[in-house]
Amino acid sequence: RPIYLRDYRPPNFLIKSVNLDFKLDAAATKVRSRLKVRHNPKSQVHNAPLILDGENLKLDAVILDGNTLTRSQYRLTKTSLTIPETPIKPFTLEIHTTIDPSQNKSLQGLYRSRGVFCTQCEAQGFRRITYFLDRPDVLSTYTVRLEADPKEAPVLLSNGNRLERGTSDRGERHYAVWHDPHPKPCYLFALVAGDLSSIAADFKTASGSDVGLTIYVEHGKEERAAWAMDSLKRSMRWDEKRFGREYDLEVFNIVAVSDFNMGAMENKGLNIFNDRLVLASPETATDTTFEAIESVVAHEYFHNWTGNRITCRDWFQLCLKEGLTVYRDQEFSADERSRVVQRISDVRQLKAHQFPEDSGPLAHPVRPESYIEINNFYTATVYEKGAEIVRMIATILGAEAFRSGMDLYFERHDGEAATIEQFLECFAEVSGRDLSQFALWYSQSGTPHVECRTSYDKRARTYSLTLKQTTPQTPGQQQKNPMHIPLRIGLLGPDGHDLPLTTDAGDALQDDIIHLRQPSQTITFTDVPARPIPSVLREFSAPVHLEVELSEKDLAFLLANDSDAFNRWQAANTYAMRTMVAMVEALSRGKRSSRGTGFAKALSAALVDDNLDWAFRAELMRLPSQSDVATEIGQNVDHTFIYRAHRQLTRLIARRLEDQLAAIHDTLKESGPFSPDAANAGKRAARNAALQLLASLGSKTAINRTADQYFNASNMTEAAHALNLLAASNSPQRRTALDHFYQRWHEDHVVIDTWFVAQAQSPRNNALDVVRALTRHERFDITAPNKVRALIGNFALMNPVQFNRPDGKGYEFLVEQILAIDRFNPQIAARLLNAMRSWRALEPKRRKLARNALTKITKHPDPSRDVHEIVLRILDE
Ligand code: ARG
Ligand code: ZN
């Protein structure tokens, strides 16, 4: 049964304070909860019964104002506890439950990860700990007492500040009491208890308060937490400077756990992380991991204001905290590193995940209007498109007014559970702008298409852009309205410099932003001395599909000259994509396209431009992925042709630029100690990108170069990349490198995932057999989400040619695994199913096989709500 946004009602009861008492035990943890409850004066219902959520709980007692209720005084179902009669005045409700963390493999609620007790309550895990009003608009202050065996769990943590600790039972047990003074919804509750090591640091806030920072990790991994700590301090400083936000407790704790459904969680004062997003050293982690750690540490920290101090009224408003916080972490990374490279990587991510979501059966508005299982809505659309919306607000308002709007939002809604309307109102108010059309970005799903036609009038010296917008139909939304789309533009004169933008377009052009609001609009520029080359959607100012008439010559010109570095990259990317699509078309007609040399030449010229930093040049060398090409083609997709076209262009570039690429690979070789900073990471990225192109040749020289990088690497960035390339090859070094890596890292449960990934992504013909065999490997564990993602997730998402085998065996394998995982971890099972969302775009044979595999899930007697919802939406005719 779906839940609808329009059915929102304020809660009938409020819970002022929560006292929790945990007697931690692996198989039988006793939870005592004491709640101060009162009727909500804003409730629209009188004499409502008190209905608490609860799942998988053993109820031991219910005590109302000191009186134990008898069985007839409450009702119990599988998902709720109802107390029909409650006092009119505020009352105290005590609930005793028993739970079994050791059997909890859903990783929601209280569970154990490698012997450590930990929790995940967002979105609805708290109801697996105790009966409660498990909804984000019920805010309470928490006091938590944890008691455990001191040998098993010397570390006892919860939210807020620690009030007390001591021993009991003559030293047999010990306890700690934590208090969080900031009212919060229960999804932000957390506890951790276990035998952990830690590193600590101090932070002084801008206004002079001291904060103790601690990161808890497995024993022996302390040194690998240093980068996360460094990232945390920089995040805290940045939020003070950029948004005026200070931290608000005496301590801030981060705990790394091995079994975690997502990346990390922003629990107040006690962030819990997937350990692969905390642990990093040059030997064990790639630059990409260092970057990801920096960004996720920042993300979770930034939630303290955007998510925790101001939370969401209901789960439909999820983008209020997630879109905004992603925008904030992207801005942080842009400030800490290269702004344009950050933008390129964010746009790549958006186009790789959000665009396909938005154009397939799982398309939904950034603020959905209904859901069956909320965990299915932690999506690229809510997160990444949500961040793009905030970015567009900043673009439309300008930096200063945007900051004022944020200030007003923090001031007005601190301590509240807010909505998107309230958020937008702050920006409308400070800027005096009407954002009502803009608000459509939250409710209308699908990626708008913007078509741009140009015409130059030599006599009149005018140049016009005619812009048309359309948004394709999406599930449940047949009618689409025109959106307010901010398009940042420039016009390049024949010398490659920007022309001044003079027009009589009025409000439709402000500075270099065109405000496209109509289905079709023409902007005419005056005083244009010669036909310019248009640079549209600079900085990717709106999440749209853009179609502009640009010849290959124009693209090469933009790549060489555009003052907007993002669009230089975009030109290269468009050029490469066009070339590959032409190659796919030729292959599907049994021909071979002769294109590619134009792009190779343009790329070669850009690579010698020493004004471009290496990270940027690395981005130019990274061709659109096979999945990107599949998305671009959009229908009748044949992954065999895409694989071959991709290889064809890669090899053509490698052959033409062989010496140049080899020189890049040679000269950028590291000297001196490893540093994870952006400049050094950029050099390694360029080296790796050059090697990847070269390795496609499969020649002895290329393979030796790759093997040499693997065996002589002084850091994981070079080792892992070379390992991936060797694993994809048919060389004798393939086996030696994989075995070598295994010998070196098999005891490290984080690093060994790299070994699974390399094999899962290999396009060799036996990939499926290899992957299947690895599911039975002693280092594989189907209950550990990181292992499942490394092996099965990567096979389905990052190995398109082998996953989409013409015999359909890839689909069958995935469905088999999904059904197995769904029995204990529905969230991970549903997530994997996302890999099938573009099945309808496949060519007819594969489409039929994919549908057959999906149908198997619908025939399964007892799928989880998570998987059930996704399969319904994916198959919906
Ligand atoms: N709020 C977390 C973050 O974005 C994500 C946790 C989501 N967890 C879940 N089970 N849906 O940082
Ligand atoms: Zn988040």
Automatic annotation (TrEMBL):
Source organism per UniProt: Filomicrobium insigne
EC number annotated for this UniProt entry: 3.4.11.2
Cofactor(s) listed: Zn(2+)
Protein name: Aminopeptidase N
Root EC class: hydrolase
Domain Aminopeptidase N-like N-terminal residues, every copy: 19-188
Family designation: Belongs to the peptidase M1 family.
Span of domain Peptidase M1 membrane alanine aminopeptidase: 227-438
